[in-house]
Amino acid sequence: MEAVLLIDFGSTNTKVTGVDLAGERLLGTAAAYTTVESDVGQGLAEALEKLQKETGPITWVKRYACSSAAGGLRMVTSGLVPALTAEASRLASLGAGAKVIRVFSYEMTDEDAAEIAALKPDIFLLSGGVDGGNKDCILHNAKILASVDVPFPVIVAGNRAVAGECEKILAATGRETIRCPNVMPQLNKLNIEPVQDEIRRLFLKRIIQAKGLSREQELISGILMPTPSAVKKAMELLAWGTEKQRGIGELVAVDLGGATTDVYSVAKGSPQSGDVVMKGLPEPESKRTVEGDLGMRYSSGGVLEALGADELAGLSGLSPEKVSAGVEYLGAHPDFIPADADGAALDFGLAAGAVDTAVSRHAGTIEEVYTPMGQVFVQTGKDLTGVRRLVLTGGAVIHNQRAGEIASHALYNKAKPASLRPRAADIYIDKSYILAAMGLLAEAWPDTALSIMRKEIQEYGTGK
């Protein structure tokens, strides 16, 4: 047996997954509560001990890992126009698995520099201006960034006419500076893959050590990528397949965590009829968004704020007073596991509310506009109404008896008719919690990873 161990260092749990390559099967999974503030290695040791109780002693031929520990990969980005180069930078960072904590547009100020210093990002992505377009903004922002006395690396990916000059300004301060091709070389044309490759390289080079994971790196073959990047890779593999195996087709996926809710779509998202015109930046076929204010524990207060106590009470069946008190408790006790009916009801309401809000933010919208030429429909973002597959993962979903009901909150809602969410979809639940592990495995063995996902990810009926 050729056994591979796949590790996911999370913000609240370390999860381990054992895979038999020859048999294309799952050997087992386990998880243990962990915090980087104490010792992330302790969580790994406890998870491995649990796994070995299930599988018995195993010799691992390879050990690979991904990480979202200690807040994950935190990035700040900047561009010229909010809906153009600033949005292109944000999409590039999210697609590489980062958590974008601030986006700047136009010329930054000294106050912005102070804010960036306080945020202490892991990486700054500096863009602005299409090639042949505005040069002044990105040059000005490079000088502002050079004044920030915090040693984060900067990726320069803006107007090629001045990108080299920006690189010199920043490198002269001793800061690690990398120049990449423009994220938007032409108006409304994205070129985000080179920047994403550089973000992942910096993650491996610098961020692992900064997040206190370097000791664990000695125990494993390599930390390959941020966890969201691993999940995204798994979703692309499941949708598109390989040369030998077909995928299941276009999909939307939701990863509901304690601190964030991530949404992925692997779908073109083009308009469904000829009388619709597109507005804004074309979005990548494989897209990820992350909602840092929506989560089951650390960010449960954000769900309450987004929905309001009355709506969350309606979802959970509890009184608004119980909802508010329960959310306050969860924020202070992120390791809480519900043991009674009220606790389970609150978890259901939070999960349904987070999924509903996160997918609404991810999907595109459509509006009716009247022009001198007559009625026109204007679409912003991706139209996902025709997507027929919905995948859900995250502890709050996979261990919940009402997982199908939670999933249905990702679908079309007549109360929000402008939101272009899937109208009806076959629901798949990641019961074994293996998506990040399969994204890691896919780096070397994509067909094995796809075979295991098709066996392990359970179909849960059709939601409408």
TrEMBL record:
Pfam families named among the record's database cross-references: MutL
SUPFAM superfamilies linked: Actin-like ATPase domain
- Which domain of life does the UniProt lineage start with? Bacteria
Q: What is this protein called?
A: MutL protein
